[in-house]
Amino acid sequence: MPFPSCSLWFFVARTDLPFMMQTIPHLVKMNNFPFEEKVIAIDTAPLSGEKVNRPGIGTMEELRSCVQKLLDMKVVDRVVDFNYDPLYRKQVYQKHFGSPLKNTHNYKGYPILGSIFKIEDCKSDFMLHFDSDMMMYQNPNCSWIKEAMILMETHPEIMFIRPLAGPPTEDGKPIQAKPDGFDEDGFLQFKFFGSRLYLVNRKRFKQMLPIPVIWRPYKHKWLDHLPVSIKTLLNIWTGGGKLDSWEVMVSKKLEQTDYYRATLTSPNAWTLHPIDRSPAFIKALPDIIKRVENNDYPVKQAGYYDLISKLWF
């Protein structure tokens, strides 16, 4: 059967330099789908929040050099910078949040505007997003993306879908994440969203807009008691306040609707997310990727989507 068009998108920032030349080619190889295009989106904004203290931060020149190499190697087809034009920000925030917010990143330094930008800039029916630090296994005889597209066609309540999070357990049940439901068609249902990896039907996503705005607690506690609409107006006027994560706000919308995020239960594709950024991890990364690509993992890693470093090196 003919499948809808799909583009593969990656985020990169200066914090990703220690590993992106290993992980991005690996992810393109593993997903093995006739993407309409493969795109790297560069966050050119100054680092903020916890991103400032990440190890291995390089320069923008080094980042652009690495991205150019990926272009030259034909790992990706296009590179684009996040659009930080104030008029663009106002327009897309009005569409996605119902308010022209000032903040471009959340309190941790994760790009909220960039998350919206890639959905808006994508030209395909579907968009597959990966954070650039992810790793993935896929059986070469299978396609989790095709399976996911079929499920989204027959289950209109699926807003986002992804492969199994973490290597499979013997009973097929995840350990680190507790689902809200199980479907006999082979997927778990979650009412919370994860922004590290997801496949989304762009037209369906528009049906979920606008997404509620959620503010982090203020230093002056009396501000916490103000209505969200007043906090938002204060942000528009003064730029004050810190936004919560985009995935938290999307999760809130999932709770308010019949939509949910689906995670496939098939062991034919699974992912790992490393939280380790140490020199020892970076040194071990090529070997870890080889093992992941061969469906080789420590037994105690099964069921956990965050890589447990002591089990691998």
Describe the structure.
With about 325 residues, this protein is of the alpha/beta class. It has one domain (about 5-295): Spore Coat Polysaccharide Biosynthesis Protein SpsA, Chain A (Alpha-Beta Complex), CATH 3.90.550. About 35% of the residues lie in helices and about 20% in strands. It contains ten helices and twelve strands. The strands form two sheets. The chain has a nine-stranded mixed beta sheet, sandwiched between helices. Helix 1 (about 20-30) links the parallel strand 1 and strand 2 (about 35-40). The longest helix is centred in the last third of the chain and has 15 residues, at about 280-295. The termini are far apart.
CATH class wording = Alpha Beta
Mean pLDDT: 95
Number of domains: 1
Indicate the overall shape: globular
Total helical elements: 10
Which strand order spans the largest sheet, edge to edge or round the barrel?
3-2-1-4-10-6-11-9-8
Order of helices and strands: EHEHEHHEEHEEEEEHHHEEHH
What is the CATH T-level topology?
A: Spore Coat Polysaccharide Biosynthesis Protein SpsA, Chain A
Q: What proportion strand?
A: 15-25%
Task: Give the topology.
Elements: E1 6-12, H1 20-31, E2 37-42, H2 60-72, E3 78-81, H3 86-97, H4 112-121, E4 126-131, E5 135-138, H5 144-154, E6 158-162, E7 164-165, E8 181-183, E9 187-190, E10 197-201, H6 202-206, H7 228-238, H8 246-256, E11 260-264, E12 269-272, H9 279-293, H10 309-312
Parallel strand pairs: 1-2, 1-4, 2-3, 6-11, 7-12
Antiparallel strand pairs: 4-10, 5-12, 6-10, 8-9, 9-11
Helix pairs in contact: 1-9, 3-4
